[in-house]
Design goal:
With about 290 residues, the chain is of the alpha+beta class. It contains 13 helices and 7 strands. α4 crosses α13. The mean pLDDT is about 95. Bound molecules: fe (iii) ion (FE). The site of fe (iii) ion has 2 residues, from loops.
């Protein structure tokens, strides 16, 4: 199959596809985070796919309820901390980050990023909007600096003492631990990791995923490619190259990822997190999380 690949920041790519509409050259959208996939669906860019192969390879809660997008890999949003200063027992839930003892200690990226939006959307889905606002306000209160950089920069920030606690996706940590760059490895191994909410509904898990574009000209091939990407052969390539967790339960994660620790995943249907995205964005604004 011949494919044209266009890469861009998720938000820009989805907007571009919306503007192009019927004139698009693209057949398949692949992007990170259910927040972005949800947005593509909201814009009417995707078409439902009734594939038995995808049904078998991708667990139902990582599949859009209308079968317009499918998870291809998954990641957990975890807490990393300075091992010399923080007792991991004190940061066992996302909500614990709002405690006043962590004033001036938390590093986290901007709320314009889908990863934080989806984390807050999951808190809203489980605990309601009031708790969601409480969480966002509490984290803002405890920030060590205004949000800047991406997740990797927060891990570096903990190592450099800019703050003691950060919220990051697992694959950044695993990629740094496996990096050819000695400094990356030293920084990543200097921090501890906590999988939050093990005593409640589990750690927030999100996906990278894909959907077939409604105006694409090669729908059949796009479906075949999605099916291949969810197959054990492709899932093994994903696992050892991007350090995410395979979506297909028959494939094992990379050993570096496994070494981060086993954990209970939040089992919520990701469609519900997409649904709460707008509420999350509104609450972040209200809380003053830049
Ligand atoms: Fe990322």
């Amino acid at each position: 199959i011949k494919v044209n690949v266009v890469t861009a920041k998720a938000e820009e790519l989805i907007t571009k596809l919306k503007i192009e509409g019927k004139n698009t050259e693209a057949d398949l959208l692949i992007t990170s985070d259910v927040g972005n996939l949800w947005q593509a669906k909201e814009f009417g860019l995707l078409t439902p796919v009734g594939s038995e192969v995808l049904k078998q390879n991708v667990p139902a809660h990582f599949t859009d309820r209308d079968k317009e997008w499918f998870g291809l890999t998954k990641r957990a949003r975890v807490i990393v901390y300075n091992k010399k200063k923080i007792d991991p027992k004190s940061i066992q839930s996302y909500m614990s980050l709002t405690e006043s003892k962590f004033d001036d200690k938390i590093l986290v990226r901007s709320s314009s990023n889908a990863y934080n939006q989806s984390l807050l959307a999951s808190i809203i889905a489980h605990e309601g909007e009031k708790k969601g606002l409480e969480w966002a306000k509490g984290v803002v209160q405890n920030m060590a600096r205004n949000p800047k950089g991406e997740d990797r920069d927060q891990i570096y920030g903990v190592a450099m003492d800019d703050g003691d606690i950060a919220i990051v996706n697992t694959y950044y940590l695993a990629a740094m631990l496996s990096s050819p760059n000695q400094k990356d490895r030293a920084v990543a191994s200097s921090v501890g990791v906590v999988f939050p909410n093990q005593n409640s509904y589990g750690t927030h898990v999100n996906i990278s995923g894909g959907g077939v574009l409604k105006w694409g000209k090669n729908n059949k091939n796009a479906i075949k490619l999605l099916e291949f990407l969810s197959s054990p052969a492709a899932q093994n390539i994903f696992a050892h190259s991007n350090f995410e967790y395979p979506i297909n339960p028959v494939v094992k994660p990379d050993p570096v990822v496994t070494a981060l620790g086993g954990f209970k995943e939040d089992q919520i249907e990701l469609s519900k997190i997409g649904e709460n995205n707008k509420k999350a964005v509104r609450i972040f604004n209200e809380a003053g999380w830049r």
